[in-house]
Sequence to fold (561 residues):
Amino acid sequence: DQVLHIVPETSQQVQHLQHLCSILLLDLWKPLFPEDIWAGKDLHIRVPAPLVQEVKDSLDQHMISYKVLIPDVQELVDQSMLRERSSQRQVPEGYVYTQYHPMKEIYQWMTQIQKSNSELVTQHYLGKTIENQTMYYLQISQPSDKTKKIIWMDCGIHAREWISPAFCQWFVKEILQNYKSDPKISRFLQNLDLYVLPVFNIDGYIYSWEKDRLWRKNRSPYMNGTCYGTDLNRNFNSSWGSIGVSYNCSSEIFCGSGPESEPETRAVAQFIERKKSDILCYLTIHSYGQYILTPYGSTTTPPSNSEELMYVAEQAAAALMGKYGTSYEVGSTSLILYSNSGSSRDWAHMIGIPFSYTFELRDKGTHGFVLPPDQIQPTCEETM
Amino acid sequence: DIDGVGRKYHLELVLEDVLHKDSTVNCTAEVLYHLGNKNIAPDVQFTLEGELRNTDEADNIFYNRIKSLEKELVAENIPDSHGNVSPEMQPVHLLAWVASGYVIWQNSTENTKFQLAQIKRVKQVKRSDEYLEFDYMILLHEMVSQEIIPWQMTVLWHPQHGVQVTQDSRQPKHAPE
Fold:
């Protein structure tokens, strides 16, 4: 069976198409009814295999141009069936990726994901938070005799950006559900390892669930416990403390008492430093604003590989827009957003990781940090 | 740049109806940020190229619903932590959004970018005249400083007379835990 895409040009063509659909009982995918076929509007018809040639001949006879949208419907059905069946095996039953989850459930999810996908996924210790919570990352790695380059992605460095950890979990699920059936993903994994930290700022995330939904920083006590929290994304050793920060703990952009003063920052920085010669790309996921940000925030001087960085980011933004029309702005933080120093993305680039990006996911302020759960799926799908 | 006065921006923008995404109106505007005293709101002039959608029916339904309440409306955390707003609270949320636009305008400079983050609390205030009055405590998010700023505002509304913010004041961040 094939699905044809036609845009009728004249009312005569419309009439002929309506006639064809009703005589041959063709399956209209768009629009639903022959009466809604209009000149200038997209028409998608599924044609059963034995009728394909006849229909095409008839279209040619009437000078109606068409494109084959789906050359083999059965193949598509088979692919999606494979995904359905394998998804039940590989992904925790009943884990709802279109809802936000508290930290306890995310820990359970990590354990479960490793158990059901042990041929690909391993959970690793990264460090401890200031409140002694354990930080774990997931390594997605296809067994192979060659050493592979690494792509690192962390989510949830800012507690209130709930869509970010939701995306990391979605990402892992998508990879595991589709790596056998999706040629792009399987090629990816042949050459690259994925390291995912689903929640960077665990204490802050828990705090945003239990006490203050709009909390941003970690939960480090300062001033004798009268003030809490360092902005982890101002705490890295990249022009630390120079611009776009506050030295006052009561500020949301407090950079800490020194570069890497926070255990969470140290845990991630030490690991990445150790592996840096193999890390190709550093991604850090935030919200909101819809941006793909390149280095640097601390200066407007462009990084050495600025052209390449921008090119890749622009490709990403275009692909993202192709899904639901969501537009992302691309550029260096200092030019399109604001100046800041001590960011993880700047630091990653400064120590030699060539591709370093901050993603600011949906939306543009309408819901801001409190993005409703019905936007989890489209946000994650387009970002994927 | 205008010597001795301030900086003027000429904008061309598209307004999108939040409730009817296909409905858009083009708009041109001029915004003048004043030199020096940052306590004056920027001057705004604008022209709409087209008409805004008529909302009389929905306005009257909401108005009558609130007028007929036995007890004054009280609510908290709109949207809730997960981003949900109940259908009954949608108009209350929209009203806060509009009113916060006024507060944001009055407090904007070239270095601020405010968004309404959440309604912490809203309380209806009984009135003897035809207006509806709501006392809001909202949270504004400021993008550059990343601060969450509590703000109190008193909002008056009537279907034919529109929205008015009769009182507003910035609140201190609540005491550290």
